[in-house]
Each structure stands twice: as structure tokens, then as C-alpha cells.
Amino acid sequence: MAPQQAPNNAPSGMIGIWLAAIRPKTLLLSLGPVILSALIGGREGSLTYWYLFPIIALAAMAIQIATNLWNDAADSDSGLDDQTTRLGPARMTSMGLLSAQQVRLAALLFLAIASLCGLFLVFAGGWPILAIGLAGIICALAYSSGPYPIAASPFGEAFVLAFFGLFAVAGSHYLLTGFWSQMALVAGLYAGLPAAAVLIVNNHRDRIGDEQGGRRTLAILLGPQATKIFYTALMSVSSLGPLHLGHGSVTAIAASALLFVIALTLPIRSLWHAADAQSLNKILSQTAAFQLMWIVIFGIWLFST
């Protein structure tokens, strides 16, 4: 695919270009679950291995960055990232500012960083962490590559729910405390729902181009109306986390009600009234911000009990 002329708003300088390439706004999706696991461990009074937090956070962000870069390189090679028709934020490969080979090498570098962190964490956490870490690295590559890329299938949201929710929170909690926690498992499931919602909005925005490129994402299979219903369900169910874990206490009801009101009045309402791709890009940011608000409100509720 021939590189296209960079638009006037392209980042200047190599640092700016690489910062844009790693998509820093997405890093909250990988860092948030680690923070949530620390909050749960702190409330339990069991952060025995608190000093592992920065290593866990670095490993999570490195895998996220590697996935982003590998995805960009793969889309550039396949021709899906056409800058002239792209609806989402510009990609450095499609703008011709970085080659697919450069981006792929950078992805491998970040996978190496994640692997080094992972080796250290395996010594601390044993084979369960080895299994989660290897699965994360394999899925980071398989997300955009191979004969059946996850990104081109209906299973992308399930992948995100698992690796940016359930496994991320429960695995991080295990490393920080030394034991598996039912609360961390359940909280990870609820916290992963907004992360999955980010992907369904992204695929809803790109569904026309994706379908033309041969992809069969969940948004394509569901269609526009059912995709909006599915997104609404993901965000609404996520707000029930405190209610579930708080067994219906007054503070848990208040926390869940606040989360539901935020979800309903901002991203959910915006999606049902979205008229163009620019509106959907705004909803992506709102959904990612909601996951952060979910963690903050959940943390406040947790320490108030």
C-alpha cells in the first residue's frame, strides 16, 4: 500500500509521531485494572507485594502498546487503514510517517519489555502468571495477525473482557497479595465491560469499511440497532458491580445508581443520538473515561464500607 500524504494536523517530530502511534489514550484501559486490583488488595489489608505494582503496570501497558502497534502495521499491510476514508483517529502508517516495518519492530520491542517484566513476575507468582502472560502475548500478536485475526472476528469484545477485565484484575491482585480473590474476579468482570464497550463502538464506527475488507466483527453481525442495544447492556450491567459485591447495601445502591446515571446521560445517550463518525469518536473517549470513573467510584464505595 502506498503511503499517503500527511494531513496538516499530523504530529511533528519523531517523538510526537511515536507518541501518536502508541495511542496513549488507550493506556488507561490497561492501567485501570491494575489500579483496581491494588484498591481491592488495599481494602483487604493484604498488599504484601505492593512493590510489584510498577512492574505489573509496565507489563500491562507494554502489551497494550504492542497490540496497538501490531494492529496498525497489520491494517497498513492489508490496506484497511486508508487515510482518505478512515473515520477514526489518524494512524502513522497510513499517513506515511512510519513504515509498517518500523511499527512492527517497535511492537516486538514492547513485547520484549512485557516479557522481561513477565519473567520477573513469574518468579513471584508462579505458573498461573506464566499462563496469563503467555496468553496475553500470543493474543497481542493474534489480535491482528494469522489466518483468523481476533480483530476481524466476532470475538474481539470477549477478548477485551477477558484480558482488560477478568484476567487483568484477578491476576494483578494475585501478584500483589499472594492469593486469588473472588471480589477481584467479579470486579474484573464488571470493570471489563466498559472496555468491551469501547471496542464495540470502534467497530460500529468502522463497520462499513470493515465489511468491505472481509471482516466479520460483532458490530457487523449485529447491525447498527442491535449494536446500540448491546452497548447499552454492557454499560448498564457494568454499573451493577457495587450493588452485586455490596449485597444490596445502601452505599452499594448509591454507587451503582451514580454509575448508571453517568453511563445513561453521557455515553449511552450520545450513542443513540450519534449522527456521524466524529460523534462516535467522542463516545469512544466517553466510554474509556467511564471505565476510569467506574474504578474511582468503586474505590470510594469500597473504602466507605
Fold-level CATH name = Farnesyl Diphosphate Synthase
Structural class: mainly alpha
State the end-to-end CA separation. 57 Å
Taken as a percent bin, the fraction of beta residues is: under 5%
User: Helical residue percent?
Assistant: over 70%
Tell me the count of domains.
Answer: 1
Order of helices and strands: HHHHHHHHHHHHH
Number of beta strands: 0
User: Overall pLDDT, averaged?
Assistant: 91
Q: Gist?
A:
This protein is mainly alpha-helical. The chain contains 13 helices and no strands. It has one domain: Orthogonal Bundle (Farnesyl Diphosphate Synthase).
Furnish the topology, listing elements before pairings.
Elements lengths: L12 H10 L4 H18 L8 H26 L21 H26 L1 H16 L13 H22 L4 H24 L1 H6 L5 H5 L1 H15 L2 H5 L4 H24 L3 H28 L1
Helix pairs in contact: 2-3, 2-6, 2-7, 2-13, 3-4, 3-5, 4-5, 5-6, 6-7, 7-10, 7-13, 10-12, 12-13
EC number: 2.5.1.74
GO molecular function, one term: 1,4-dihydroxy-2-naphthoate polyprenyltransferase activity
Subcellular location: Cell membrane; Membrane
